[in-house]
Amino acid sequence: MLPYIAWLCFLFPLIGALLTPIFAKIHPRLRDFGAVIFGALGMIMALAMVPFIWSGAAWIGTPPLYWYEHSIEWITVPVINFSIQFGVLVDPLSVFMACIATGIGFLILVYSLGYMKGDESLTRYWFLMQLFIGGMTLLVMANSLFVTFIGWEIVGLCSYALIGFWYNRKNMVKDDQLGEVTEGKLNSHSGMKAFIVTRVGDVGLLISIVFIAFFTVSAGNPTLNYQVLQTDFTWLYNMAAILNGLLLMGVFLLFFLGPIGKSAQFPLQFWLPEAMAGPTTVSALIHAAAMVKAGVYLVARMAPILVSAFIATSGTITAFVLNNFFLIIAIIGTFTSFMAATMALTSKELKKVLAFSTISQLGYMFMALGIFAFTADGIIGYTAGVFHLATHAVFKALLFLSAGAVLHAVHSKYLTDMGGLRKLMPITFIVMFIGVLSLSGVPPFGAFWSKELIFASAWELGAMGSIWGWIFLAFGAITAIMTIFYSFRMIGLTFYGEPSAHVKSLESEGHPAHDPPGVMWIPLAILAGITLVIGFLQPLFERYFFTFWHDQFNLIPGYPHFGTIIEDYIYFFEHVFTNPVYGISPTFLISLGVILLGGLLGYMFYIRRSWSPEFVGRGALGGLYKFLDRRWYWNALMYKIFVNGGLWFARGLFNKVEIKGIDRANYAIAYGSVGLSRRWRRIQTGVHSWNMILLLIGALLFIILLLLFQFLGGVLMIPIPFLP
């Protein structure tokens, strides 16, 4: 059954997408429930692969194919013996990501039955949502870079179409860059913005894939297959030999540009807040299960391959380049995490607070994956990055869908239009507060365990003597303080205090805010329950991922021997809360300090409201507030350079080159041709005898020219210096 379920986990959503227009013709309810059913089938297929990983049934154990693959021959280039196979790879990472994409995607589809009910474009919505889930699942199940890139582009296309889904809305809104525009124009612009910005990264990724393919051909082992790439590093060594390692660094920086774009990391992070223009269900899918997770997945997929090469070539140019490449990953992730958290402190829209938090949490993941290459037991960094991806997927889906319930109730996206909803929407408040506690890293909720593990990986790097470890830990802790503060700010402005004038006006009009129907809150309850328990699954997660780690990457230090489940849990709790040198784990103390400081500030300002935040609008704090509110002016700078600057450059080309250059040259040639024609026409008298005389003169001149070439030979030839 393994080859069938591996294909069906992404084929079911894709088939459902293709059948959606047909179902819509038969009956709208068949279309709606058909999408949910095909989403459920994809999820079941993904979950059905977990036992094969857990038991080792998918482990082949013979290089180069350690894990089970199933593929078909697709494109063959016989001259260089290069073939591209379209296939699936069943390994811990691919199955784990497929379960996230299809599982959370299924819950979002169920939620959509209530949230999108009555929308006039539901057929388009269901088609794109299923295509989105199918494309993401194909991306993570792919056995090669080439097939991954196909899923990568499907995801990009769907995000563009779904962000701009409500392109035809007529009500007016105000945007910082666009001014007063219709909501439809804003949505279309936001979708195009996401598409164009992520294309920058995609072009870099495609160029790097072409380079990797070329060097595997020159190394005599043409492939883009992930498992084959990790068994023979000749392609990488040959690349490192060119320009003293500069080519290798350039190729992998271009490669990382793809994840930077998709996962909204600096400097391409500015598209994601505008992606909130689409339906909240789309935002949940983008942030929790698809799109932004694709970049983290690709780094997690390639990182073990590069780390194996890094260890195998210790002391060489290759090792030096890869060392700096992983350092760049960690630095960009750390800086992005900090930068986005500061922006969330001042955001006025509910969904944009969550968008900035997504950018920040993705930065944590890249920080951990970058640290992965440096620590003696690199598995800690890898575990931290990938496990935080799992916890974030759950609590971010919970938060976005809860935010959707709030927006559905109050018909506004602004925090100032909310307040006092705790008693009006008790179920939504409870589940969203659980999501906030997880985002804040409060124990025992999911993200506490994964964030603490990220801090532990940074601490280990610092303890090894690297200043970068302490820098990453310091910025990670400061970011965590801000995360708790803006999370409490969000929950306080939404649910605590007095109801806003907007909420009161809705109530007076007979439309009081209320909890969503069961089809919407049941997925929220499921996600809240998973958020409560997922952190305690970390030992099982490590066993799932790393049972075969040492055999698969035999150049990487092995993970400590797995004991019984009870022994694994004892080991897990000991390492979270205790330390053999300090007694209590220092990273656990840092986590507690972060929670207390950020939580106290957020509680006093926005929940208890003992302190007023109004003073931040005055003096130097007012300037800082404006700086953060304008998103460090990075968004405006990108518009000024690439949008306004691009238009200015295009207009200049049109006016100076097109009109005054090319057009004038065309007119000059045309007028000159007409003038020459008129002058030449004067010798055309129409008299036959005169025409014959001119013909004879021309023939005579031609004969004289031939005689000169014949008798004088090369005497008349003009020497040309640059010819040999």
Keywords:
globular; two-stranded antiparallel ribbon; mainly alpha
What's the short version?
The protein is mainly α and 724 residues long. It has 27 helices and seven strands.
Which spans have pLDDT < 50 for at least 5 consecutive residues? none
Q: Averaged pLDDT, please?
A: 90
Could you say which overall geometry the principal axes of the C-alpha atoms support?
globular
Strand order of the largest sheet: 1-2-3
The biggest sheet amounts to: 3 strands, antiparallel
Strand content: 5-15%
Number of distinct beta strands: 7
Which range best describes the helical content: under 10%, 10-25%, 25-40%, 40-55%, 55-70% or over 70%? over 70%
Q: Which structural category do the helix and sheet elements fall into?
A: mainly alpha
Supply the number of helical segments. Answer: 27
Give Rg in angstroms: 31 Å
Number of domains: 2
Report how far the terminal alpha carbons are from each other: 71 Å
Structure description:
The chain has about 725 residues and is mainly alpha-helical. It has two domains: about 1-630, no CATH class; about 635-715. The protein is about 70% helix and about 5% strand. It contains 27 helices and seven strands. The chain has helices at about 1-25, 30-50, 50-55, 90-115, 120-140, 145-165, 185-220, 225-230, 235-240, 245-260, 280-290, 290-310, 315-345, 350-370, 380-410, 425-440, 445-465, 465-495, 500-510, 520-535, 540-545, 550, 565-575, 585-605, 620-630, 635-680, 690-710; strands spanning about 60, 65-75, 80-90, 170-175, 180, 580, 585. It has a three-stranded antiparallel sheet with strand order 1-2-3. α14 (about 350-370) packs antiparallel against α18 (about 465-495). The longest helix has about 50 residues, at about 635-680. It starts with a helix and ends in a 12-residue tail after the last helix. The mean pLDDT is about 90.
